[in-house]
User: Fold this.
Amino acid sequence: MDDCIFCKIGSGEIDADNKVYEDDYSVALLDIEPIREGHLIVIPKEHFPYIKDMPDDLYTKLMLTVKKMQNILDDVFHPPKVGMFVSGWDIPHTHVHVVPMFNSKDITSKPILEKTSPQFTKDEFQATKTKITKAIKS
Ligand SMILES: [Zn+2]
Assistant:
């Protein structure tokens, strides 16, 4: 879709500085409004408003990237759990949130509604990106 930010990132038209991983079918990005340090979103390169409408092979490839990112977040942050969810309220291009969870409420909307989500400086954000990309390469 012409005006979709995730399509532009997927096609390379926009070089997102929060990108941590890319393969032929998917891209992983640090969420710019993270629930926790390391909160990622994984998007298919192709535009699908609803994850349920993805062809099985692309759905599987997307979820394999999600699994890879879950393992990376586990290695980097050692959280008790790595959660994931798909909501789709903000950008109508399928994106799977993958979040290191230290609290059972980490993937509820509570921190967002109460505005208690963590705020990171540009340097902290960059440091998180470095930790994750290093783990992906190793
Ligand atoms: Zn799109």
